[in-house]
Amino acid sequence: MPGKPKRVVSLIASATEIVCALGKRDWLLGRSHECDYPPSVEPLPRLTEPKLDVHGSSCEIDRQVKTLLKDGLSVYRVDVDMLREIDPDVIVTQDQCEVCAASLADVEAALCDWTGRDVDIVSLRPDSLADAWTDIERVALALDCVEDGAALIASLKARMAHVTRRCAGLPKPTVACVEWIDPLMAAGNWMPELVEMAGGRNLFGEAGKHSPWMTWEQLRAADPDVIVILPCGFDMPRVLEEMPLLTAKLGWSGLQAVRGGRVYVTDGNQYFNRPGPRLAESLEILAEILHPGRFDFGHKGAGWMIFESARAAA
Predict the structure, then answer these.
(1) What is the rounded distance in angstroms from the CA atom of residue 145 to the CA atom of residue 21?
(2) 168-313 — its CATH code?
(3) pTM for the full model?
(4) CATH, domain range 8-125
(5) Across 84-88, 105-109, 282-286, which has the greatest mean pLDDT?
């Protein structure tokens, strides 16, 4: 039997997508400043805001984040008054990354002198693809829709398995996924798994582990066949603004990916950096990128594009 409606707040974009994919959009009463999908959530009250200037360059954002964390401060501010006004039954947050969204500690601090009934805090920690499925199960359990959660996971797995089967036997290009541009960071966590599922050979980052820093010299020495740019929190226009930081590097034009026109700009904010239902779309995007002409899921232009200077160099 379906459970009675609950008052739900989501403080991380991937969780908002999970709640909606479970059919509980009407239960959602508050969101983070980054929750923007599905579009129907945008009118909801925003309960978080960053303590830094998100419009700065990659280097400036990195410096601000490191300063806040060094001083023992949170990167985000939670609107305690609005949270209490909503009076949620369930709050979904995360403790996987202090930089990605409001953390469990932020929520606990906001509720430190809460009076009244208990609040169910569901804190997600997706370090791998398997963890992402477990998080869907946990949200479904908190919302009393366990069967819907199982059905959603089964549907996503089947969809992704279909892509993986189609990629089997195709040439396996070497791939470098760049999660931050200045300083350089490779993509870890679930991204190495997605690259392998899409028929690529991942060069940097380890499945199930946090994204590692890397140097330009390491990227240049690896000389990948394909470079996928997917900075956390950036859409494609924002990535294009940052690309001169890479193209100015010594040896950029000599990279195999550049000479072959195989540098790709993606909307990492909407896809790869959100460990929720749209990981299926993320895998489809990688299949389109790694195997030109063999796949067309309709994501080109919306989720990814060829970096034009790389095309010109080809």
Answers:
(1) 11
(2) 3.40.50.1980
(3) 0.89
(4) 3.40.50
(5) 282-286
